Recover the amino acids of this structure.
């Protein structure tokens, strides 16, 4: 049906340098890039591709209430924005935003446990955003720009 | 006929073009033109009939123009019109010293068209500050941004800014006081279009500053449709929607608990990174509530303080208050610290004095201090936390304190991880007697990740050790230990294929994942439950070792989890358009560990978990859908269904539909929308209906009218509160362009009820496709 095991080099560049803020996902993103045979370099001059991590934010919204007005479900959003630039280009590309959503049930009687569950979901959303950034990066080809 | 005069340029050098723009490079050059021209010995020039004079960026027109070259004096009589920095001023007569832009005009009118706005004076720090604090917790919404433009907010999302509007006025006298400054006496000011006279500021004096796009008025009266709305001895306003100190638009309303109410907020723009909003809220049934909110943001710290105080409530005869103090501080070298302290005078405070579900649903208000540290390998968190519990039942354990240290180091292909935690659990004094004590946990582990672009395999081996020193328990249970080895194996593969739909390239992935865990059984019946609870089953917890949160319960496990995910990705951008997953867990051992050992009937009987499935899609940009199902194959029953979807084809047009079902807990649907009804009218509505309780949980209906230079919105709302019967609320708000640039209650209420709502003054005239990615 046309499916093949993913090739060994989905990314069109071999060196990348991080610019901008030190976001919580940076460490995971670094590791993921290294797995895909990209060398992380300090100086922008030595890199084929630059990534500028701009911002990350979290938001917690009430998703549903019980008939008595108690929170029964929360939804969580994790949003991260970044932009990329091949080293030889003078301008940064369009700001790209990735937003991930999760929900979980809630009860004030188990507040401490639910707080930990929430933290776990945020961690999972960060991991997913790293994979999403990698997919965006594999669509970026410095030779074609 | 045309003449050109300057000390350095002889008058015979006549430019060939009549357009003043060609003269703008020679800023001190003067071009004068008219049906008839008179020159008097290079000293005085006179143009009669359709006369005009250009000097730099300034242009003046009139029936007769006289210009004295020597003392730089301009005198225009008859239909005088002058253009300074984009603004056009007209009147019967103008006197002006051109080089200094100093002069005056009688019975004059002023128009500053949309295009003449200065947006470069935006302070980026102020922008970030306002965005940072503009979340739902805030009572007042702060707006910034260049008018009529879309720009990125700090998340890089396209954010709508208020539309540009004309600024115009007239005055008995207009005094020019330099290039950017004008002073108007006995003046009127509005942001309405020419011919629309819906509202005005009438003032004995108005000062306008083009450079800062702001103004101030003394002895000012705001009139709406001829009706005086408010009087103030002094008011500052911005015609660029910047934050400005001044009175904000009052909000009127009525609630079933507190009667008729008026909130008059005053905004104090202390500094670009600091502001305060003070409010007086008069409640007909209760008295006068004072509100204050103080926000600050420096490079290394930021915070928000909120105080509400209602002295001697007429209904309860008690002083009532709410206080919330929040602060976070970066200390350097990876350390940070902060506090968050919330307190209310009584448990009915929110349900009686608030109509915001974010507060009325609150049961536990935290009072906590935290210290954090993070570096490349280690992270440390210490927290001291208590709660004010409003329902007198749901008391969480107090953590006084809890310290967590975790980290990891890589040695070659191997990762060494360590998680340690020490907690002292205390009981709230009002709670029933429960066990308390200290708990120590250490969980060292080794992982050996083997990762390739096409897949990965990660074995992990660890030892989870926990010890307790307990109080309020039987004598032989004061000291407990538990040691558990934990082994897991995580693995996944990635398959791809490329295809095309209507000339657009897509790539589809198939990603199977397998996760095996082994944890032996230890009877944990004697261990109290401080912070453990059962997690929801989802695609994150399907692949976790322990289905319990916290460290009081570690499940026994000999189980295999399997999930299959497929994604559709746009090849050109790498954007995921759709992803779908399905998964299940298979048990090779019976459940032995539970939160509550006394109830054996809750123990799992099946050898497989419920099947879970989920879909997330963002189709054709305007449709978003997120759905999740959990299905029990043994009982053939639905355990959980959550569907949320949004249709948002353009700003101001949004429809949200959602359905939420949890067995024995929830069964409700939710519909909310903002929709244009034509001629500037917008309908806003929301209904949340519980089929389980057969009643409406939340409902809201509103209308918004956008007249261009003012907006009016009225909202009716029913709120089910956690600590009392439902509260009904009615709010009305009038927003005058540029004046009341900070909205009050209805906006936050609508935003919470209708996700995707955009205030009608933020809806661009011609929605750009760039609104979406």
């Amino acid at each position: 049906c046309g499916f093949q095991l993913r090739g060994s080099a989905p990314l069109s560049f071999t060196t990348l340098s991080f610019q901008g803020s030190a976001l919580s996902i940076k460490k995971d993103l670094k590791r993921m890039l290294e797995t895909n045979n990209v060398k992380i370099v300090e100086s922008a001059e030595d890199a084929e591709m630059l990534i500028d991590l701009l911002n990350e934010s979290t938001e917690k919204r009430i998703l549903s209430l019980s008939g008595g007005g108690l929170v029964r479900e929360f939804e969580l959003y994790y949003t991260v924005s970044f932009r990329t630039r091949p080293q030889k280009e003078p301008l940064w590309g369009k700001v790209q935003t990735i937003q991930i959503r999760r929900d979980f049930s809630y009860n004030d009687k188990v507040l401490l446990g639910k707080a930990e569950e929430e933290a776990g979901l945020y961690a999972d959303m960060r991991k997913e955003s790293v994979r999403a950034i990698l997919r965006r990066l594999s669509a970026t080809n410095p030779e074609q720009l | 006929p045309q003449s050109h005069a300057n000390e350095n340029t002889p008058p015979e050098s006549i430019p060939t073009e009549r357009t003043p723009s060609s003269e703008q490079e020679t800023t001190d050059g003067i071009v004068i033109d008219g049906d008839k021209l008179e020159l008097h010995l290079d000293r005085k020039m006179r143009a009669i009939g359709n006369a005009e004079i250009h000097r730099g960026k300034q242009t003046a027109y009139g029936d007769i123009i006289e210009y004295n070259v020597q003392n730089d004096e301009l005198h225009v009589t008859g239909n005088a019109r002058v253009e300074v920095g984009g603004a056009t001023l007209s009147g019967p007569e103008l006197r002006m010293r051109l080089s200094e832009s100093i002069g005056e005009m009688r019975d004059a009118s002023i128009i500053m068209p949309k295009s003449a706005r200065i947006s470069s004076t935006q302070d980026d720090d102020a922008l970030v500050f306002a965005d940072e604090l503009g979340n739902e917790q805030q009572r007042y919404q702060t707006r910034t941004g260049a008018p009529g433009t879309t720009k990125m907010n700090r998340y890089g999302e396209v954010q709508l800014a208020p539309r540009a509007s004309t600024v115009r006025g007239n005055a008995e006298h207009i005094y020019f006081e330099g290039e950017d400054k004008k002073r108007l006496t006995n003046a009127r000011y509005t942001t309405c279009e020419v011919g629309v006279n819906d509202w005005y500021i009438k003032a004995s004096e108005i000062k306008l500053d083009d450079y800062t796009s702001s103004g101030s008025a003394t002895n000012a009266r705001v009139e709406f449709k001829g009706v005086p709305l408010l009087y103030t001895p002094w008011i500052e306003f911005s015609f660029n929607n910047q934050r400005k100190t001044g009175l904000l638009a009052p909000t009127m309303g009525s609630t079933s608990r507190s009667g008729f109410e008026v909130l008059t907020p005053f905004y104090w723009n202390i500094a670009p990174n600091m502001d305060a909003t003070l409010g007086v809220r008069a409640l007909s049934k209760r008295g006068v509530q004072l509100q204050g909110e103080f926000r600050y943001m420096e490079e290394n710290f930021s915070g928000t303080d909120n105080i509400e105080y209602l002295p001697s409530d007429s209904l309860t005869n008690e002083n009532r208050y709410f206080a919330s103090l929040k602060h976070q501080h970066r200390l350097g070298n990876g350390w940070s610290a902060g506090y968050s302290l919330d307190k209310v005078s009584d448990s009915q405070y929110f349900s009686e004095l608030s109509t915001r579900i974010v507060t009325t649903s609150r049961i536990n208000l935290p009072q906590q201090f935290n210290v954090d540290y993070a570096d490349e390998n280690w992270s440390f968190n210490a927290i001291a936390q208590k709660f004010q519990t409003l329902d007198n039942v749901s008391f969480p354990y107090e953590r006084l304190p809890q310290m967590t240290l975790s980290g990891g180091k890589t040695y070659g292909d191997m990762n060494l991880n360590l998680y340690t935690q020490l907690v002292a659990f205390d009981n709230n004094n009002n709670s029933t007697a429960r066990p308390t004590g200290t708990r120590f946990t250490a969980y060292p582990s080794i992982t050996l990740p083997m990762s390739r672009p096409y897949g990965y395999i990660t074995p992990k081996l660890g030892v989870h050790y926990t010890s307790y020193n307990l109080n309020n328990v039987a004598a032989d249970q004061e000291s407990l230990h538990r040691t558990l080895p934990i082994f897991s194996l995580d693995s996944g593969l990635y398959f791809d294929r490329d295809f095309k739909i209507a000339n657009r390239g897509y790539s589809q992935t198939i990603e199977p994942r397998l996760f095996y865990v082994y944890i032996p059984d230890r009877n944990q019946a004697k261990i109290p439950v401080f912070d453990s609870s059962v997690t929801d089953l989802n695609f994150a917890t399907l692949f976790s070792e322990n289905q319990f949160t916290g460290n009081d319960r570690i499940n026994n496990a000999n189980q295999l989890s399997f999930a299959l995910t497929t994604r559709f990705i746009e090849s050109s951008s790498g954007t995921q358009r759709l992803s779908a997953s399905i998964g299940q867990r298979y048990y090779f051992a019976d459940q032995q560990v539970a939160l509550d050992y006394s109830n054996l009937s809750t123990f799992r009987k099946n050898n497989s978990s419920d099947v879970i499935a989920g879909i997330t899609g963002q189709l054709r940009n305007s449709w978003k859908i997120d759905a999740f199902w959990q299905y029990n194959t043994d009982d053939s029953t639905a355990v959980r269904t959550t569907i949320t979807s949004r249709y948002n084809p353009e700003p101001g047009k949004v429809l949200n539909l959602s359905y939420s079902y949890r067995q024995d807990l929830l069964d409700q649907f939710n519909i909310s929308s903002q929709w244009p009804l034509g001629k500037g009218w917008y309908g806003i509505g929301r209904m949340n209906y519980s089929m389980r309780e057969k009643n409406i949980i939340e409902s809201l209906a509103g209308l918004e009218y956008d007249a261009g230079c003012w907006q009016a919105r009225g909202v009716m709302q029913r709120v089910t509160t956690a600590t009392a019967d439902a509260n009904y609320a009615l709010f009305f708000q009038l927003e005058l362009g540029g004046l009341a640039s900070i909205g009050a209650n209805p906006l936050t209420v609508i935003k919470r009820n209708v996700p995707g709502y955009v205030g009608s003054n933020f809806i661009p005239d011609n929605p750009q496709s760039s609104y979406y990615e």
Observations:
- Chain A has a mean pLDDT of 87.
- The helical segments of chain A are 26-35, 111-138.
- The first strand of chain A starts at residue 4 and ends at 5.
- The longest helix of chain A spans residues 111-138.
